[in-house]
Amino acid sequence: MTEVKLDNWQKRSAEKQKEYKKLLQRADKNKLLKRLPQLHEEAFEKIDCLSCAACCKNYSPRFKTPDIKRISKHLGMREGNFIETYLRLDDDGDYVVKQSPCPFLGADNFCGIYEVRPSDCERFPYTDEDVLIKRQNITLKNSSFCPIVYYVLERLGE
């Protein structure tokens, strides 16, 4: 196992997009899926999300109906008021936050609704799921701003 270098990782990730795409297309899916949980854990041991939070600063999760119900209840708001205050419909018809960074992201990069956060946030960056393979365009995009995805792809390519 070679050490994955994390300095200047965004530049390296940008340079390796075609390589990552080939890896995801040609890999033995079953072997790859078996490796993901361990690589996911390894990446999270080496990389602190709170030092980055690029996902929360630049992108929005989808807020599905159960998320909206749970979060609005937690905030003591009516669902309609929650939607009106924080969300908009995107081009795909999904609810997303109106602004970036996420309105629930604190200055310390902690999430103000972490315990009730949207399922997309809870699952992100999907490095322990088949989403990594099944939704390759998302994986490639995520590798450009999330060091965890970069790390996992680098290790998979070894």
Write the layout of secondary structure elements.
Layout: H1 9-15, H2 17-26, H3 29-46, H4 54-58, H5 65-75, H6 79-86, E1 87-89, E2 95-97, H7 119-123, H8 131-134, H9 136-143, H10 147-156
Antiparallel strand pairs: 1-2
Helix pairs in contact: 2-9, 3-10, 5-6, 9-10
Helix content: 40-55%
Mean pLDDT: 95
| SS summary, helix count | 10
Give the amount of beta strand, in percent.
Answer: under 5%
Strand/helix succession: HHHHHHEEHHHH
Structural class: mainly alpha
Largest sheet: 2 strands, antiparallel
- The beta-strand count equals 2
Poorly predicted sequence stretches spanning 5 or more consecutive residues: none
> Which of globular, elongated, flat, extended, rod-shaped describes the shape?
elongated
Count of the domains: 2
